[in-house]
Specification:
alpha+beta, five-stranded antiparallel β-sheet, 5 strands, binds zinc ion
Amino acid sequence: MPLVVFAPATVAVILAGLVGGTLLVRRRGYNVGGRVIVRCHAGHFFATLWIPGASVKSIRLGWWRIQRCPVGHHWTMVAPVRVASLTEDQRRQAEQYSDGPIP
Ligand SMILES: [Zn+2]
């Protein structure tokens, strides 16, 4: 089977885009590129490892992802939330429910 190899310039452009995008959203108060608090479609909060460009346990749809919610035990659409916009209770709930070390 032929192996697909990208030209180094292509790889550099993709990496620059991922890093640039990550820095941009981090500056807006979202902690992506590490452990991030997300909200599921049903309103649950939990912490997940969110690394732009890398996801094994979720289906990426731009800013949203479809992944398993450890709070409601269901598959759902999740999006990162700004930590500063959370109440103390919401933050505590999110830290209580973490879905492990795989992005
Ligand atoms: Zn949920």
